[in-house]
Amino acid sequence: MRLVDLNPYWVGHGGEGVTQDGKPVPRREGLGLAYDCPCGKCETGRFVAFRNPLDGGLPIHPDRALWDRTGDTFETLTLTPSILHTPGKGGCGWHGYITNGEVTSC
Ligand SMILES: [Zn+2]
Questions:
Q1: pTM higher than 0.85 for the full model?
Q2: What stretch of H or E contains 68?
Q3: Which of 1, 6, 27, 41 has minimal Cβ neighbours within 10 Å of its Cβ?
């Protein structure tokens, strides 16, 4: 299936009206990808954070799992390594790849 069919969108952070410890948080774009789970059963969407965000800045939550991104559109996006929705962390167990905008289960 194609990533574009999973209602994908880029996830940003900060900007107008967002503060942390009383200080404004600068707007960031393309920190990660949100999409409907390819398993077709999950009611909540999924999120993966990029090691190399679209805006060229540093990743958010560098202490958590990050994916290497190639491509800057949903049609051309490739993420490595594979994606696992870890069952122990509330995931459904789906495991697969996003390669050149194509989503494959493994
Ligand atoms: Zn799922």
A1: yes
A2: strand 68-70
A3: 41
